Structures are given as structure tokens and as C-alpha cells.
Amino acid sequence: MQVDVVLLTKNSEHLLCKCLTSVYQNVPIKNLIVIDGFSTDRTVEILEKFNRKFGNVFLVQMHGSRAKARTEGIRRVSTEWFMFVDSDVLLCKDWFKKAQADLADGVGAVWGLNVDVLPNVTDKRILKFQSLIARQCFKLRGGMHDTLILHKAVEGIRIPEQLHAYEDAYIVRWVEDHGYKAVVGSDVYCLHYKPPNNWRLQNGIAQAIVEFRCGLVYSHLFEYMIFYPVFILYWCLQLPLSGFRGNV
To answer: For the whole model, what pTM was predicted?
Structure first.
């Protein structure tokens, strides 16, 4: 079975080559559908390199929110199952092969655990805490870092365009509201390498503002906000471990 892969990008050169290599090595790709926000770095050059090698990269450039980009990606899918993969992750070995074990009747989405990579952190207690937080986060607000989705489970979806965050939650809710289960994969994960500027204080505040504004639109905000203090604590714990830079 081959699947289409939908990849959202914008100025992703810091990890894009390694990301795409991991996807092609671990997923049977029919088409790689890239929705790019008019990158100004080497993103398009890297994509052209992979298209010369594999001949199945389809680039769509557009302005707008993540919601608009994901809706456009879904619209272009041609396979029974497809994947969302973020441009700043590396898939585990045999990702797709392992995920197939979770494709039971009634399953509409299989999410791979995302593990945030922190420089020089190998403490198993911290890694376990990361895993617990990531799993809880998915249950409350979804996630599209590395997610296999049944195409018919999202047929007709129109994600509200103002959702630059929580669009992942909207997709998961849609899948569940249409009679399918969204499950955490039993043995699949990705390593999440956040861009360097993500660790700047100004960027962190800007992301928090986006989350809050989109949360006002997202109908399940209250449920998520109950657990939000734990996410904030988790983020604060990451800062000193990641070599946090307070300058902007």
C-alpha cells in the first residue's frame, strides 16, 4: 500500500533534508504534497533536489494559516490513507510498517508520539515525562507531527481558516465525531527538532498569543485550558535544558 504524504513548510531548511530522507526511507510514498508558505530560504531548492531523485514531489505555494494549508493538502490527497508529517521531525525506523499494526476496524487516525529533542538531554526521567505530556496533549488537542489518516474519515472537512493553532485538534475531533477512533500508535514516534528561534522568549510569547486567540475559536478550549498549566511548566523546564536564549 502506498500513501500520499502532506508536508507543511515555511523556511524549513534547518532540518528539511533530514526530514524528507527519514520519510522516504520509512513510508511508501505515492505523492509528496508540499504546502509551502512562500519560503525565502533553501526550502524550495531542497524540494527540487528530492523531486529530481524521486519524481513525485508536488509543490503548492500559498499564503494563509495552518488550517488553510492542511485543508488544501487534504483536498489534493488521492490515496485511501495519507500522512501528515511536519517539516521539523525525523520519523523512527519502519514508521509505516509499525503503524499498520494499529489499523484495526474503526480506526481513522494513528498518531506517532512526538519527542521534543533537547540538546544534551538523555535523562530517562525527563524523556518519560516528555512522553506522558505528549500523550496527554494529543488526547486533549490532537497533533499532526506524524499522523496516518484514513482519507474518508476527513472527507468534506473545512477547517476554520483562522485556526493557525488548534487546527490539529479540529482534525482529530472531526475524525472522532464521524465515528472513527484516533489512537496513539503503540510503537511509532518522531523526534521533534524545534527551530533554534523557538527557544527565544519573544517567540515563545508570540506562540502563546496565537494559541490563545485560536483557542477562543476552538470550541473545546476549556477542556484544554484545564491542563494548560502543566504544559506551561513543561515548556519552562525545557528552557534551561535547551540552552534558552533570553535575547531577541
So the answer is: 0.80
